[in-house]
From TrEMBL:
This is CHRD domain-containing protein. Keywords: Signal. It comes from Nocardiopsis aegyptia. The lineage of its organism: Bacteria, Bacillati, Actinomycetota, Actinomycetes, Streptosporangiales. Residues 1-27 form the signal peptide.
Length: 215
């Protein structure tokens, strides 16, 4: 996989709030969001990775059709940020105690957090496939121009993902950190255990939040 940076024209600012009409040909009727379940996650920085990235996620779910809206700021600018719905763990974010030693430095890799948040089930890509196969599709994730991004996409979740969201077992993880503050993904932590062609900085969690039903 080539580690290409592709700059996507995503709206960097928070814009409209719900309710709003989604003008698409989706089967779901989003008008007014009547009867549509809503879940929210508070994304908190993974501080052991020297990340200050934070934000919010809202998931509206109608059957298996989901609208996923993510707002993140204070994240490394102009670099792709893989982001996923993880399932099958404890439905929690890892703590600093879950961190390992990577290239002699204490940091939390994606694997270090698996027991807490589980495996990738849904890749929150900007276009195309959203399965786990696209987990590191770095040319189809937000690149955070200016250090922030807003992601908003409506697509069908897998049955497993929809079930996990409703079972309070789904966790949003946004990846890609700048551990040493040099403004890019480098080798300070060595290579990623997920793909040795990528630096670990490119795949370590930056922000994390468990999804909970919003009543
Ligand atoms: Cu992930």
């Amino acid at each position: 996989m080539s580690f290409t940076k592709r700059f996507l024209c995503l709206a960097a600012a928070a814009t409209a709030t719900v309710p709003l009409a989604v003008g698409s040909a989706q089967a779901a009727d989003w008008s007014g969001y009547d009867g549509i379940e809503r879940f929210e996650a508070e994304l908190r920085p993974v501080t052991v990775n020297n990340s200050e990235a934070s934000g919010t996620t809202t998931v509206w779910l109608d059957g298996n059709t989901a609208r996923v809206r993510i707002e993140v700021d204070e994240i490394l600018a102009d670099h792709p940020h893989a982001q996923h719905i993880h399932i099958g763990g404890r439905g929690e974010c890892p703590t600093d105690y879950d961190a390992g030693i990577h290239n002699g430095r204490r940091a939390l890799s994606t694997v270090d957090g698996l027991d807490a948040y589980g495996a990738v089930e849904t890749s929150l890509t900007t276009e195309g496939d959203t399965s786990a196969d696209s987990g590191l599709a770095v040319d189809r994730f937000p690149t955070a121009p200016g250090g922030a991004f807003t992601y908003d996409r409506t697509f069908d979740l897998s049955q497993a993902a929809a079930d996990a969201v409703r079972a309070d077992n789904a966790v949003i993880v946004v990846h890609g950190i700048d551990y040493d503050g040099d403004g890019t993904y480098g080798d300070v932590l060595g290579a990623s255990e997920l793909d040795p062609a990528l630096p670990m900085e490119a795949t370590n969690p930056a922000a994390c939040g468990p999804l909970h039903m919003k009543h």
